[in-house]
Specification:
With about 120 residues, the protein is mainly β. It has one helix and ten strands, in the order E-E-E-H-E-E-E-E-E-E-E. The protein binds zinc ion. Zinc ion (ZN) binds next to loops.
Protein backbone atom coordinates (compact mmCIF):
# COMPACT_ATOMS: atom_id res chain seq x y z
CA UNK A 1 0.00 0.00 0.00
CA UNK A 2 1.34 3.46 0.75
CA UNK A 3 1.69 6.34 -1.58
CA UNK A 4 2.18 5.89 -5.26
CA UNK A 5 4.58 8.17 -7.09
CA UNK A 6 3.13 10.91 -9.22
CA UNK A 7 2.84 9.46 -12.64
CA UNK A 8 1.38 10.38 -15.95
CA UNK A 9 -1.41 8.46 -17.57
CA UNK A 10 -2.92 8.81 -20.98
CA UNK A 11 -6.64 8.51 -21.32
CA UNK A 12 -8.99 8.42 -24.23
CA UNK A 13 -12.57 7.83 -25.17
CA UNK A 14 -13.51 4.65 -26.99
CA UNK A 15 -13.23 5.85 -30.57
CA UNK A 16 -9.98 7.69 -29.89
CA UNK A 17 -11.18 11.16 -30.86
CA UNK A 18 -10.61 12.49 -27.34
CA UNK A 19 -7.13 12.03 -25.87
CA UNK A 20 -5.82 13.52 -22.64
CA UNK A 21 -3.11 13.05 -20.03
CA UNK A 22 -3.20 13.43 -16.29
CA UNK A 23 -0.53 13.38 -13.59
CA UNK A 24 -1.63 11.93 -10.28
CA UNK A 25 -0.51 9.77 -7.40
CA UNK A 26 -4.06 8.41 -6.99
CA UNK A 27 -4.69 9.47 -3.40
CA UNK A 28 -8.10 7.87 -3.71
CA UNK A 29 -10.77 6.96 -6.16
CA UNK A 30 -14.27 8.19 -5.76
CA UNK A 31 -17.60 6.89 -6.72
CA UNK A 32 -20.30 9.48 -6.93
CA UNK A 33 -23.97 9.16 -6.18
CA UNK A 34 -25.11 12.16 -8.20
CA UNK A 35 -27.90 11.45 -10.63
CA UNK A 36 -25.60 11.15 -13.62
CA UNK A 37 -22.68 9.19 -12.10
CA UNK A 38 -25.07 6.69 -10.60
CA UNK A 39 -26.33 5.85 -14.05
CA UNK A 40 -22.82 5.56 -15.42
CA UNK A 41 -21.36 3.70 -12.47
CA UNK A 42 -18.32 5.92 -12.89
CA UNK A 43 -15.19 5.61 -10.79
CA UNK A 44 -13.34 8.88 -10.75
CA UNK A 45 -10.02 10.34 -9.71
CA UNK A 46 -9.77 14.04 -9.04
CA UNK A 47 -6.83 15.99 -10.46
CA UNK A 48 -6.09 19.69 -10.43
CA UNK A 49 -6.66 21.35 -13.78
CA UNK A 50 -2.91 22.08 -14.02
CA UNK A 51 -2.34 18.35 -14.07
CA UNK A 52 -4.86 17.71 -16.78
CA UNK A 53 -4.09 18.22 -20.46
CA UNK A 54 -6.52 17.71 -23.29
CA UNK A 55 -4.31 16.63 -26.18
CA UNK A 56 -6.95 16.30 -28.83
CA UNK A 57 -10.66 16.06 -29.39
CA UNK A 58 -11.96 19.33 -28.03
CA UNK A 59 -14.23 19.56 -31.05
CA UNK A 60 -15.56 16.08 -30.38
CA UNK A 61 -16.67 16.82 -26.85
CA UNK A 62 -20.23 17.58 -26.00
CA UNK A 63 -20.99 19.43 -22.84
CA UNK A 64 -23.92 18.20 -20.82
CA UNK A 65 -25.22 20.34 -17.99
CA UNK A 66 -28.21 20.09 -15.74
CA UNK A 67 -29.47 21.27 -12.39
CA UNK A 68 -27.51 24.46 -11.56
CA UNK A 69 -25.52 24.23 -14.79
CA UNK A 70 -22.25 24.73 -12.92
CA UNK A 71 -20.99 21.17 -13.09
CA UNK A 72 -19.76 20.33 -16.57
CA UNK A 73 -20.04 16.81 -17.86
CA UNK A 74 -18.14 16.10 -21.05
CA UNK A 75 -18.97 13.36 -23.51
CA UNK A 76 -17.46 12.25 -26.76
CA UNK A 77 -20.17 12.91 -29.29
CA UNK A 78 -18.90 10.15 -31.54
CA UNK A 79 -18.75 7.17 -29.17
CA UNK A 80 -20.66 8.49 -26.15
CA UNK A 81 -17.92 7.82 -23.60
CA UNK A 82 -17.78 10.09 -20.60
CA UNK A 83 -14.08 10.78 -19.95
CA UNK A 84 -14.19 13.64 -17.43
CA UNK A 85 -16.22 16.29 -15.69
CA UNK A 86 -15.88 19.40 -13.56
CA UNK A 87 -17.96 19.74 -10.48
CA UNK A 88 -19.64 22.73 -9.01
CA UNK A 89 -17.99 22.40 -5.61
CA UNK A 90 -14.47 21.95 -7.02
CA UNK A 91 -14.29 24.00 -10.22
CA UNK A 92 -10.46 23.92 -10.36
CA UNK A 93 -10.43 20.15 -10.39
CA UNK A 94 -11.23 17.74 -13.13
CA UNK A 95 -12.79 14.38 -12.32
CA UNK A 96 -11.38 11.69 -14.57
CA UNK A 97 -13.16 8.46 -15.38
CA UNK A 98 -10.35 6.04 -14.47
CA UNK A 99 -11.58 3.36 -16.85
CA UNK A 100 -10.55 5.65 -19.71
CA UNK A 101 -6.90 5.52 -18.61
CA UNK A 102 -4.40 3.28 -20.33
CA UNK A 103 -2.61 0.77 -18.14
CA UNK A 104 -4.35 1.83 -14.97
CA UNK A 105 -4.73 -0.71 -12.18
CA UNK A 106 -7.09 0.22 -9.32
CA UNK A 107 -5.65 -2.49 -7.08
CA UNK A 108 -4.79 -1.17 -3.63
CA UNK A 109 -6.24 2.30 -4.01
CA UNK A 110 -8.83 3.40 -1.49
CA UNK A 111 -12.27 4.12 -2.83
CA UNK A 112 -14.39 6.73 -1.14
CA UNK A 113 -17.95 7.62 -1.76
CA UNK A 114 -18.73 11.20 -2.62
CA UNK A 115 -21.91 12.73 -1.48
CA UNK A 116 -22.76 13.89 -4.95
CA UNK A 117 -26.51 13.73 -4.79
CA UNK A 118 -26.78 17.31 -3.62
CA UNK A 119 -24.09 18.75 -5.84
CA UNK A 120 -24.88 17.36 -9.24
ZN1 LIG B 1 -15.09 8.92 -28.78
Amino acid sequence: MGHRPLSTYTGSCHCGAVVFTIATDFPELTTCDCSICRRKNALMVKVHENEFKLLQGEESLTLYQFHTHTAKHYFCKVCGIYPFHRKRVTPDFVGINVFCLEGFDPEGIAVSTTIGAGMA
